[in-house]
């Protein structure tokens, strides 16, 4: 198993997307500083989205979820919602059900944090709770590698901190349920020196913790 130092900035990590196999992706950003959203709203002005059109290989659906209105992006279905709400999960399943019978995604990306690194060091609980909610979101919405016929299929990528408490979460929640888990930092990243991403591949739920 690679060490944290080997994983960080490793140029030989396996690719995130397996063209043309990745068909459906979901991105989330709860934007905690924004006012709460009571119910999810689908942006009907999003371009190039239709559950009735047959999809060509490699031309799937990207669903972007944010509590703020997202400017229309070609090929992306935007949803104004809090992804932690049950209603949002139901809506996501409905959108994906139009293109696969499981109503699940190949990739889930979360590019947000609820704390700064300094706040996390003082009190890690909010971030750990956020990560547990994200894990539950993945458990409900992520296709397994076996389902898509790819050993590394079923990908979760989310922002995290390089800290012993986060790596405990990695060992308790991520390692038992993904074929591979890496902590990565882009060399040109503007992130804090302790910020990076957990890249989790090969989703295959084996162990669920509710602590």
Q: How many beta-strand elements?
A: 8
Large-scale geometry: globular
What is the fold-level CATH name, i.e. the topology? Rossmann fold
Looking at the overall shape, the CATH architecture is 3-Layer(aba) Sandwich
Q: Mean of residue pLDDT?
A: 75
Characterize the biggest β-sheet. 8 strands, mixed
- Proportion of β residues? 15-25%
Report the C-alpha radius of gyration, rounded: 17 Å
Please give the domain count.
Answer: 1
Helix content: 25-40%
The low-confidence runs, each spanning 5 or more residues with pLDDT under 50, are 1-23, 30-35, 44-57
Organism: Cyclocybe aegerita (Black poplar mushroom)
Family: Belongs to the class I-like SAM-binding methyltransferase superfamily. RNA methyltransferase RlmE family.
Keywords: Methyltransferase, rRNA processing, S-adenosyl-L-methionine, Transferase
GO cellular component, one term: mitochondrion
What does this structure look like?
With 211 residues, this protein is an alpha/beta fold. The chain has a single domain (18-203), classed as Vaccinia Virus protein VP39 (Rossmann fold, 3-Layer(aba) Sandwich), CATH 3.40.50. The protein contains six helices and eight strands; from the N terminus they run αββββαβαααβαββ. The chain has an eight-stranded mixed beta sheet with strand order 2-4-3-1-5-6-8-7, covered by helices on one side. The two termini are 26 Å apart. The model is unreliable at 1-23, 30-35 and 44-57 (pLDDT under 50).
């Amino acid at each position: 198993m690679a060490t944290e130092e080997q994983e960080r900035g490793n140029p030989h990590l396996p690719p995130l997307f397996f063209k043309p196999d990745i068909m459906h992706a979901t991105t989330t950003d709860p934007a905690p500083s924004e006012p709460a959203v009571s119910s999810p709203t689908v942006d009907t002005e999003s371009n190039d989205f239709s559950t009735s059109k047959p999809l060509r290989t490699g031309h799937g659906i990207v669903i972007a979820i944010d509590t703020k209105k997202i400017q229309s992006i070609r090929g992306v279905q935007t949803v104004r919602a809090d992804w932690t709400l049950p209603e949002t999960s139901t809506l996501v399943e409905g959108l994906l059900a139009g293109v696969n019978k499981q109503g699940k995604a190949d990739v889930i990306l979360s590019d947000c944090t609820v704390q700064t690194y300094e706040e996390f060091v003082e009190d890690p609980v909010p971030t750990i709770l956020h990560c547990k909610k994200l894990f539950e979101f993945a458990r409900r919405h992520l296709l397994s590698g076996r389902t898509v016929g790819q050993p590394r299929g079923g990908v979760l990528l989310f922002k995290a901190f390089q800290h012993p408490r986060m790596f405990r979460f990695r060992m308790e929640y991520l390692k038992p349920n993904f074929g591979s888990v890496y902590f990565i930092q882009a060399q040109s990243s503007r992130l804090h020196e302790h910020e990076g991403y957990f890249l989790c591949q090969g989703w295959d739920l084996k162990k669920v913790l509710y602590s």
